[in-house]
Design a protein that fits this description.
Blueprint lengths: L3 E9 L6 H9 L6 E5 L6 E5 L13 H17 L3 H5 L3 E4 L5 H14 L14 H10 L5 E4 L5 H14 L5 E8 L3 H10 L21 E8 L8 E10 L12 H13 L7 E5 L6 H14 L6 E2 L2 H4 L6 H14 L2 E2 L21 E2 L3 E8 L4 E9 L2
Parallel strand pairs: 4-5, 4-6, 9-10, 9-13
Antiparallel strand pairs: 1-7, 1-8, 2-3, 6-7, 8-14, 11-12, 13-14
Length: 382
């Protein structure tokens, strides 16, 4: 059987600290960014942000040790894995920033105590998140780390699915991590693409609102559930047109969608709904819209999840997949907050009210900096 089944899920984001809380907030169309003030710069920044509403201060570096293992533990418990299965569980991690926030805090602490010895960005490596996860779970399985901008956790999931298909693993844990850090906030502010609200595909869209989230999915070669969601297939490409801006002709976006559909042996007309990437930037939405129009003669319903949890960068695939798959299992497709005015250049009309989720196939888009594009195909059973 191609693909892999979603056997367990965990999520902590602006909507809540459990999958159940997040789905409930999704049904209520809850949108809850806060305003952060960064006064460490010459010009203080006031930035809307979707943060996890835990009990700690947003820049408290101990949040890595508290949030990440808790979400992973929720996923493996939901999957019903035994202690032996957890011990040998391979972990696939996708993130843009990994422990940058942790590193920033270490630097600031050193700067306050011994400025002559302070090193900018210490202790920031690709293995840190894996170490936190393995300590928290008591796992000693192989670890794989992906850092491909906003497609990082999508590629981690695609890699896990491929290894399950090859028979290398029966189960795999895929984790997307993006926690607040000053480097990302200042960097995106410098790009001048941050907005006050997220309005995907809207004529008045002005840019993204960042968010943080930790999502975890247990993929498995088999399932006992009648009502389930399977990652049926997917594809990735990289067009290198620009380091930061999508090619607005949509050719590479269309190519990866077509490749994913072919890999899953699905035709465009079989897609029930599209979960768009929908960054709400001028060029990003233009590129995705052009790509969609090249692939679909009759466009199926489109929805976007970033207005609920913000753009969680490298973690956005796993975070949004947990939300979307959970909504499908609850038999609804969420609406898209923030969309009001159709852009005639795009001619994309995201759902403004939720609709029933039917049995069938769903396409999920993920597009990142430097033209790294990943598309997943899901199958929902009764």
């Amino acid at each position: 059987m191609p693909g892999a089944y979603i056997r367990g899920m965990g999520l902590s984001c602006a909507l809540g600290e459990t999958v159940e809380q997040c789905v409930s907030a999704l049904e209520r169309m809850q949108v809850c960014p806060v305003t952060l003030t960064l006064d460490e710069f010459t010009e203080p920044l006031r930035i809307p942000y979707y943060r996890i509403n835990d009990s700690k201060e947003p820049f408290d570096s101990s949040r890595y040790e508290s949030l990440i293992p808790a979400v992973a533990h929720a996923a493996v418990i939901h999957a019903g894995l035994t202690s032996d299965e957890i011990h040998n569980l391979p972990v696939f991690i996708g993130s843009s920033c990994f422990t940058v926030g942790w590193s920033e805090q270490s630097y600031m602490n050193a700067l306050a105590k011994h400025p002559e010895n302070a090193l900018p960005m210490p202790l920031c490596g690709y293995q840190d998140i894996a170490d936190i996860l393995q300590r928290g779970l008591g796992s000693q399985g192989e670890t794989y780390t992906y850092n491909t901008a906003c497609t990082a956790s999508a590629n981690a999931l695609l890699g896990a699915m491929r290894m399950i298909e090859l028979g290398l693993y029966r189960d795999a844990l895929v984790v997307g991590v993006e926690l607040i850090n000053r480097t990302s906030l200042a960097g995106f502010s410098g790009l001048q693409i941050l907005a006050q609200t997220i309005q995907p595909f809207d004529q008045l869209r002005q840019g993204i609102v960042l968010g943080e989230g930790v999502g975890a999915i247990v993929l498995s070669a088999e399932t006992d559930s009648v009502n389930h969601v399977r990652v049926l297939g997917g594809a990735n490409n990289c067009d290198t047109w620009s380091m930061t801006t999508a090619n607005t002709n949509g050719h590479s976006a269309a190519a990866v969608m077509i490749q994913a559909l072919k890999q899953a042996r699905i035709r465009p007309r079989q897609i029930c709904c599209i979960k768009a990437h929908g960054t709400a930037t001028r060029t990003g939405d233009m590129a995705e819209a052009c790509g969609l129009r090249q692939v679909f003669e009759n466009l199926p319903p489109v929805t976007v999840l970033k207005p609920y949890l913000g753009h969680t960068l490298g973690a956005c695939c796993v975070n949004e997949l947990v939300l979307f798959a959970s909504a499908l299992l609850h038999r609804f497709i969420p609406a898209t907050p923030g969309f009001k005015t159709t852009d005639p250049e795009l001619n994309i009309h995201p759902l403004t009210v939720e609709m029933p989720a039917q049995t069938g196939h769903y396409l999920l888009n993920h597009f990142g900096f430097a033209g790294n594009n990943t598309v997943l195909i899901l199958e929902k059973t009764a």
